[in-house]
């Protein structure tokens, strides 16, 4: 592969046996050119990875392909025949299927019932025997075993993802689009997914794999297309390409693993800021809840909570933030029992939070950037009785924060709801860390962020840690947890199944415990 120089902008490689072709796709919204003259080709029996920063146009392009949006210009052809996709129904009829990050399943229905809804011609009577036979065939052929009678709400995130893939196969899809498919999986489950995808590829399926994780791209893709600012930067074969090459195409950074932060040494006698003591909570609808959970986070420490979604991590955060009352046990902030405090009182006590769903739970979408940045800071910016806001001081403070961390916000008067998910996440980090909290609870702080945004988020978190904050990070990304955290607490089925200093354990051990596999008997690799 030709190395990228400072003036290089486009790399290209061709594919034989093109099955899916997008030519000249352009899509704009008021004031935004989301896709600009995009050309994309994917072969039959090929896995193409689609990479790009937040706002690069990946989601818009896939929504055009899946019939959510009509392009302003350009054409789509499948197997040499032009197609018009005015709706997802059109896309499904054309043999296109998509697995979204938020699964499109009905929790109260069984696996078989959810599969039945994907059938091209669903009649009045459901032939459950035929569906079961089809599921057995797919399980045998692709390793996609699923209990036809299990209710979806009883399944783990990885099992639900399996059902989504089964839906596509049963519906007759030959083009499979997967959006960040590993975000709900433990490391060994990722290996299992990749085995399934390779088998599907070898059976002639065309797969578009959207991810921000370069390591995954190098493990699964045949070719990689990079988008930047709505345009294709280049398409390269995996063989002969490195993570550094891809990072330079994405953001102009060759050393993607380098970090710009320095980690201060922890104080030997650091005070404990958060203490969770023997807490139990009943779960809802089959979720794990919490069972006799104890952990602590000290000042100047990042504590990480590792676990597959639905194993009690959310309940832990809800208990710490006063949104959920435990059935047993206590929560302490600096030796003060806050178990029965309200969320407002806990936040006022010096606790910041990055919620699981930032747009829904962390900001007011209809308010401006400026207004959202001063939420919970009334005392600082609205002195006296709180009847007057010093908006000039507010704007200066916000502009300084944004400039210091290179955040690109065109106008502070924009409603937050118009920003990309990545920019909303970064604004939340800036706002919450700018309050200088004693404790910051961060749920999935870099979920969906690109390389540059993830680096900035990590810089912010470690800077807050170095300044003395206690930080509790809940994440499914083990690479992130190992990079950030001083201590790891592993959850499985609502219980703590291991507590480690980050340097004393590896990702395989943590992944096994996350999924109830127990600890490894041996650390050395098995012979080939």
Description:
The structure is a single chain. The protein is an alpha/beta fold. It folds into 2 domains: 18-95 and 174-251, P-loop containing nucleotide triphosphate hydrolases (Rossmann fold, 3-Layer(aba) Sandwich); 272-514, P-loop containing nucleotide triphosphate hydrolases (Rossmann fold, 3-Layer(aba) Sandwich). It is built from 18 helices and 20 strands. The strands form 4 sheets. The chain has a 6-stranded mixed beta sheet with strand order 6-7-8-3-9-10, with helices on both faces. The protein has a 6-stranded mixed beta sheet with strand order 16-17-18-13-19-20, with helices on both faces. A hairpin with a 2-residue loop joins β19 and β20 (495-501). The relative contact order is 0.11.
Offer a concise description of the structure:
With 528 residues, the protein is an alpha/beta fold. The chain is 32% helix and 24% strand. The strands form four sheets. It has a six-stranded mixed β-sheet, with helices on both faces. Strands 16-17-18-13-19-20 form a six-stranded mixed β-sheet, sandwiched between helices. A four-stranded antiparallel β-sheet has the order 2-1-4-5, covered by helices on one side.
The structure class reads: alpha/beta
CATH architecture annotation name of the largest domain: 3-Layer(aba) Sandwich
Work out the helix count.
Answer: 18
Count of domains:
2
| CATH fold-type name of the largest domain | Rossmann fold
Which term fits the overall shape? globular
Residue fraction in strands? 15-25%
Low-confidence stretches: 1-12, 254-260, 520-528
Largest sheet: 6 strands, mixed
Mean pLDDT figure: 82
Name of the CATH class of the largest domain: Alpha Beta
Extended strand count:
20
Instruction: Identify the CATH homologous superfamily of the largest domain.
Output: P-loop containing nucleotide triphosphate hydrolases
Report how far apart the termini are.
Answer: 31 Å
Bin the helical content.
25-40%
- Cα-atom radius of gyration: 24 Å
**Strands of the biggest beta sheet: in what spatial order?**
6-7-8-3-9-10
